[in-house]
């Protein structure tokens, strides 16, 4: 079952935000992930952060391996100086496979 990592954030340093994409894309590819959402958000309820990126991986294990990798942990230091927000893991959903099958 797919695994997702969601970055929900505000940009603190607009001049530097473009640095993150070129640095993160090779790491995402290395772990078999892809960006499925990457844009500003429009709130229907509540006060969200202004941007969201969702990465999809083949499994939660792959998503976790990506996030815990040395490359991502190093990139996180830069990301924290440019953005503020939250990062969450979310398992995919299937009507034919239970989440415990993973």
TrEMBL record:
<dbReference type="InterPro" id="IPR010753">
    <property type="entry name" value="DUF1330"/>
</dbReference>
<dbReference type="Pfam" id="PF07045">
    <property type="entry name" value="DUF1330"/>
</dbReference>
<protein>
    <recommendedName>
        <fullName>DUF1330 domain-containing protein</fullName>
    </recommendedName>
</protein>
<dbReference type="InterPro" id="IPR011008">
    <property type="entry name" value="Dimeric_a/b-barrel"/>
</dbReference>
<feature type="domain" description="DUF1330">
    <location>
        <begin position="2"/>
        <end position="93"/>
    </location>
</feature>
